Amino acid sequence: MITRLPIPLLAAASLASAAALAADPASPPMPPAEMQQMMKSYTPELRQKAMALSPELKGTIQKLHAGHTRRAKETTLRQVMHEILADYQAVAAALATDNAEFASEAARRLANHRIPKGGLLPYFPLKQVNDADLGVLPTMNEVVEGSALKLADAADAGDLPKAASYLSDIMTGCVACHQKFRGTPGVSSNLLSPVRK
């Protein structure tokens, strides 16, 4: 059973991509050539921030990427998030209609979502591309994608109530991540707030 973590800890890692890594810690890191190709697409500022990350965190990010078999050619992170939401909704619909096979399939697809164009780093706010903010990616990954894989296993075993119990863990991780890295959609720091007296 997953221990519930405080929202800030959950949030700090949201977009990690390696449920498969949780199942296979020996997963090889992303080939250096692929990582170098991603780095070529970064702005100089992002490249500098990425190079300043600790070797341990760089290795973790490579392993998180390597845990996914699907790579986007042009798909952005926002589009990948839409795909993940569609898979989550498919899981919920499948569980509500006692369709264990579809629930398992959609949950595994969610856990193996595609890596967006350029990898994960370009989509984090530049000020959060550092060891402190990105260091909990494996924990967040386990909450979101690890729970999706546990859901799939429970559905494969025909235990739909247990499978359904993992839905809230997945959503808790998603929402916490969005609070940390995305902020509130539609809210702009460029608008003046009225002063109340």
From TrEMBL:
Keyword Signal among record annotations: yes
Name used for this protein in its record: Cytochrome c
Top-level taxon of the source organism: Bacteria
Molecular function GO labels: electron transfer activity; heme binding; iron ion binding
Signal peptide per UniProt: 1-22
Entry annotated with the keyword Protein biosynthesis: no
UniProt keywords, alphabetically: Signal
InterPro entries linked: Cyt_c/b562, Cyt_c_II
GO biological process: electron transport chain
